[in-house]
Amino acid sequence: WPRHPYRGEVSLNPTSLTLPRRLTRAFSAFWGGLYDNATLGRGQRYRHTILTDTKRALASYDWQRLLSLGRQLYCNLGEVRGPVLEKAMYAVGNGWIPQFYGDDQKWGERAEQWLNEHLKICDVRGEPYDFRTGLYLASVAMDRDGDVGLVLTESDGGYPMLQWIPAHRIGWTHGDEMLKEGPYRGLSMCNGVIFNALGRAVAYRVYDEIADVSTPANQRVYRDISARDMALLYQPDFHDAGRGVTAFAHAIKSCFDYLDVHEYERQAVKLASSIGLVEMNESGEADVGKAYIGGNGDTSAAGVRIEDLDGGSIRYFRANSGADLKPFVSDRPAENVNEFLEVILRGVYQGIGWPYEFTRDASKIGGANVRQIIDKVKRTILCRQHVLMNAATRYAGYSISKAVKLGLIPRSDEWWKWTWQLPEEPTVDLGRESQQDRENFKLGMGTLKQWYGKQGRWWLDEIEQRIFERAYVERRCKELGIDPRGVQLLTPNEIQSDEPPTREGVKVDKPEE
C-alpha cells in the first residue's frame, strides 16, 4: 500500500502476511499474543494464541510494551520493587569472590590477587560500577526487564573490560526477519537476536544510545555483536525462548488494579481524616455568611453554641432546638479491602517464585512453615546464581587470558579453572542449623566446603588461615617461653595433658585407638 499513511511494513509469522504496522496490531489483538498483559486495556480477554515458536509468538510491539510496563511498576510500586531487590541482595550480597580450584596453587594465588583487584575497575562506566555491583544490577534487570546483555570488551591498550547492555538497546526489529546483508546474511533475527538454523543465538543487534526513542529503527545506528563476545542473561520459561520478559508479565494488570484500589482507598482515608465533626440542622446546608469563628459565645445560624476554655484546648458545644453535632467516624480502610489486596499480591508473588510471607508478612506462620519458606527462598536464589555464575565464570576466564597475553600474570594451562565463593545463605535459625551441620560433619555426611560455603567463606582460605594462626602462635610462644595452651583456644582432641590418660582410675600408657 504505497499511499497508505501507515505504509511501514512488518512480517507477521506464521501467516507470512505483510501488513501495515497498525493492521498488524489489530490482527494480533484478534488472534491474541502470548501474554495477555501486553495488551493492557483491550476489551477482549480470551483469544486464540498463535501456535508457533515462542520467540516469534511474542511480537516486537508486545515485548516492548512488557518492558515498559515492567519498568514502570518497578519504579512506582514498592510491592514489586521489594522482592526484586531482595532477590538480588541475597543472590549477590557480599559474595562472588573468585577462587582458583586447579592444582597449581602458587599460580592460582597470584592470579586470584590480580583478579580481585581487576574486578574493582573492570566496568567501562567506572565508579561506582564494579563487578559485584554489575551482577547485582543484572539480577534486578532480569526481573524488571527480562534480560540484560554482557559484552566482553577491552580498552585501547587491550586491557580486559566488560560492558552491560540494557534490554531496550537490544532489538527494535519488527517481528521475525531474514537478514539480507552483512556477515550474518541468510540467518533469521527476532527481537534483536540472530539465530542459526538450529535456533542457537549467534549474534545480537545492539543499538547505540539515542536521545529520541521515536526514531525509526532503520535510522538508528547499530552493530551486530557475535555471541563469542556477548552473553544475554535471562531465565527462560520455554525451551525456544529467544529473549527474557519481565518477571511480572503474568500480573501486570493485577499490579495496576492494586495501584488503583490502593490509591482510591488512600484518598478516601485522607478525606475521612479531614472531617472532624458533622452538623445536622433543619436546612441541611451551611448558612451563607455564618460560620464558626472559634470565639467564646459564638453561635451558628443553626443554633449551636460554642465556648472555648483554656485557650481553645477545651471546647464545649451545645445544640439548640433542631440542631445536632456529632463526631465523624470512618471505618476506612475496610478489612475486606485489605484482604482483597493481599489476594492480589499473593498471586503476583507466586508468579515470580518468591514467597509472599518472606517479604510482606510472616506473622501468621511459624515453626516448620517458616523453614519451608526459607527453603523456597534458597532454591530461588540458587536458580538466579546459576545464571550469574555462567556469565561471571566466562568473564573470569576472558580477563585472565587477556592478562596473560599482556604479561600481567604468567601463563598456566589451568587458566580456566575458576569458581566463585557465593554469599552467606539466608537462615531463620542459625544456632539450630549450625548444630545440625556440625553433627553431619562428625558423621562424615558433610564437607568443609559445604560448612564454610553456607557462611559465605571459601574453605581453602579458612584452612590456610587456621594453619597460619597455629604456626604463628606456636612460633611466638616458643620464642618467649610461653605455653601455647594459655594463648590458643584448642578443641578437646587438641588439648594435651602432662598426666597420662586413665581409664576407670587406672593409668595406661596410651589411649585406646
Key descriptive features of the protein:
alpha+beta; 513 residues; flat; single chain
Kindly describe this structure.
With 513 residues, the protein is an alpha+beta fold. Helices cover 38% and strands 16% of the residues. The protein contains 13 helices and 19 strands. The strands form seven sheets. A five-stranded antiparallel sheet has the order 6-7-8-9-10, with no helix packed on it. Strands 5-4-11 form a three-stranded antiparallel sheet. A hairpin with a 4-residue loop joins strand 14 and strand 15. Helix 4 packs across helix 10 and helix 7 runs antiparallel to helix 8. The radius of gyration is 34 Å and the shape is flat. The N terminus is likely disordered.
**What is the radius of gyration?**
34 Å
User: Roughly how many Å apart are the termini?
Assistant: 93 Å
Binned, the helix content reads 25-40%
Alpha-beta content class: alpha+beta
Q: Spatial order of the strands in the main sheet?
A: 6-7-8-9-10
Shape: flat
The helix tally amounts to 13
Oligomeric state of the chains present here? single chain
The total beta strand count reads 19
| Residue fraction in strands | 15-25%
What's the pLDDT, averaged over the residues? 77
What profile does the largest beta sheet have?
5 strands, antiparallel
Question: What's the arrangement of secondary structure elements?
Answer:
Layout (H helix, E strand, L loop, with lengths): L8 E4 L4 E4 H11 L22 H4 L2 H17 L1 H14 L5 E4 L4 H14 L12 H14 L3 E7 L5 E6 L10 E3 L9 E3 L2 E3 L5 E7 L14 E5 L3 E4 L18 H22 L3 E4 L17 E2 L4 E6 L4 E6 L4 E4 L7 H17 L4 H4 L8 H38 L12 E4 L8 H13 L5 H6 L5 H22 L21 E2 L2 E2 L6
Antiparallel strand pairs: 1-2, 3-17, 4-5, 4-11, 6-7, 7-8, 8-9, 9-10, 12-16, 13-14, 14-15, 18-19
Helix pairs in contact: 3-4, 4-6, 4-10, 7-8
